[in-house]
Amino acid sequence: KSQSVKEESSLQNRFAANESGMPDPRHEVKYFISLPAYYQLRSVLSPVLHRDRHANARGEYFIRSLYFDDAYDSAYYQKISGIEIRNKYRIRIYNCSDELIFLERKHKHGDLISKDSVRITRRLCDQLIEGRCDGLHASNSPLLQDMFREMRTRALRPRVLVDYTREAYTHPAEDIRITFDKDLHSGLFSHDLFNAKVNGVPPLLHGKMILEVKYNRYLPEYIRSLLSTVPSQLSAISKYTLC
After folding, report:
1. Which end of the chain is more exposed for a tag (fewer CB within 10 A), N or C?
2. pTM value?
3. pLDDT (tens digit, 9 = 90+) per residue, 117-155?
4. Is 182 exposed, middle or buried (0-12, 13-18, 19+ CB in 10 A)?
5. Dihedral sign computed on CA atoms, order 120, 103, 18, 52
6. Which stretches of 133-205 are assigned E, i.e. beta strand?
């Protein structure tokens, strides 16, 4: 229990630091990889990178996001139209628990990303899922104030649940973060965020997963060399769009 509390506190601090303003943009590159490529790449990354400290004994953790979009599904159509600059709003939880709930906005500009985040209560989470923005305009959080504006002027509402299991590795050089996102599932028409028994539908073929590489200014050559040891398909992947 003590270890769990430490992990939750660490996770909270990691995201809460963004409340004061949008962090500096980072590079984000995504690939489709196969199961054999995953096993091979994991074997070469493990000796030189650190396991994510929030992972369980298997080195994984479960992520569920409820994505929001406006009345015209602008986030969806901007993505498939190749619009370079766009935002997405989502509520994110871990392991289907309501102990840590975050409202996040991801800003995308080409292959650069930035994200701001605020921890919210279960009560506020339920309110947003119901499509109510009561009182958000009076919040001290700029993100919640923006959420109020988007819900009032663009009818921002929940659209789809996105589930996957993440295996993550980190390195302090350029704040490198490499993740394998496995078992991607779409919750389709369910907005039941905390229901662990939602019957999801996989949008990818069996054994196919998503490799994400995030870093600040540049990717060190030896990391790049390790990543090039396996076949991969570079793609502008959006889990929201897939699901």
Report:
1. N
2. 0.88
3. 999 999 999 999 999 999 999 999 999 999 999 999 999
4. middle
5. positive
6. 157-171, 176-186
